[in-house]
Amino acid sequence: MIDIDTIEDADECDGEALHVYGRDTTTGQWRWQWVAVETLMEAGRGDLVPWLQE
Known about the structure:
Elements: E1 9-13, E2 17-23, E3 30-36, H1 37-42, H2 49-53
Antiparallel strand pairs: 1-2, 2-3
């Protein structure tokens, strides 16, 4: 799973999830992963809102 605090970029939103780039908590490697919008909002990642509005 991506560490929500390490998300640096996003490139797609399907309305329910945002495709984000961040550090994997298990491997420590940087990768792309789909993360639920609800999870991002609960974690306080309002800085990603512009991606959610596109």
